[in-house]
Every structure is written in structure tokens, then in C-alpha cells.
Amino acid sequence: WDITNIVLNHKEMTVDIKSEISHLEKYFKVQQEIANPKFDYTIKNNLSNTEYKIPRLLLKNLANNAIKHGLNEIEGKIDVTLFEENNYINIHVEDNGKGFDTKNLNKGIGTSTYENIFTKLNPLSFDFLTKNSNSSGVASIFRLTGGDDRNSLGK
To answer: How far apart are CA 26 and CA 147, in angstroms?
Structure first.
């Protein structure tokens, strides 16, 4: 899977969720081949409309953080869930890794970059939260404006 191809061959900052899920599946398959120790993953897409636009590589980067930070040196699992609730599109990426010290949480360059992208595209369109999950790992949660305004992010 050639990430450079995806980055260089797209002029838009956003892509439909259906394409992002396809890219994520390819990314996970490659990572499973090279990761040591190994990990499992699930992708549950419960969205009725997968044409909604999100920033390119968002799912891949959230998954990469789960592999790199959450599952660093341990076998584990990553669950990606997309669903609609209360007029929001919800994207949850959760691992069962080691978690983190909430007192020393610093936003990394990836988190800051996506917050800047969302703010530029539509400042009222998103919420982002990273927290220790119930499964002992980390949950990264994006909530995007949904409902009748579903395509507003990419305009």
C-alpha cells in the first residue's frame, strides 16, 4: 500500500469515509505483516451515509497512533467504530494497550494538525477527545457534525 500515492495524487484535503475505510483496511493489513508483536483489528461501519467527507488519512493516522503508542511492544487489538448519534458522525479508535498518564497528556503534532484542519474547514463541525478507555488502552474519539449538514466539512 503506497501512502505516498494517496498523499500526492489528491488535491483535496478531504475524502469520503468509504474511501478512508478502504485505505485503513489496506494499512492494517500491511501493518499486521510487519508489526512485532502482532495485533488484531476490527472495523465496524454503522454509518448510513459513507459519502460524508473527512480529512484525508484521518483514520490511518488515528490507527497509527494506536499501533505506535498504545500497542508499543505488546500484543493487542484495535477497534475502529463509526456510527451516527444525535446528529453527529462518531469515529472511535480504541486499543487495549497500556493507556497513558492523563496528568501528562500533551497534544502531539498529529492531533494539533487535525484540530487545525477541522477548524479551517468548519470551526463548528467537530469535537475531539483522547482518553483512557474501559479496556485499559486509549480511546480517540472524533465527533463530526452530521444530520442535514453531513457534507458541510468538505465544502
So the answer is: 29
According to DSSP H, which parts of 122-154 are helical? Answer: none
Instruction: For the chain, list residues with pLDDT below 70.
Output: 1-10, 101-111, 114-115, 117-125, 133-135, 146-155
Q: What is the dihedral of CA 13, 16, 17, 18, to 10 degrees?
A: -140
pTM above 0.85, yes or no: no
Query: Between the CA of residue 79 and those of 46, 65, 76, 154, what are the distances in Å?
Result: 13, 13, 10, 26
Least Cα distance to 121 among 139, 92, 142, 141 occurs for 142
Strands 76-85 and 126-132: unpaired
List pLDDT tens digits, range 134-148. Answer: 667 778 887 887 544
DSSP, residue by residue, 37-82? S-EEEEEEE--S-TT-EEETTHHHHHHHHIIIIISTTS-EEEEEEE
Angle, CA of 123, 78 and 92, to the nearest 5°: 25
Instruction: Mark out the alpha helices in the chain (DSSP H runs).
Output: 3-8, 17-34, 58-65, 109-121
* Distances 49 to 3, 84, 112, 128 between C-alpha atoms, Å: 25, 9, 27, 21
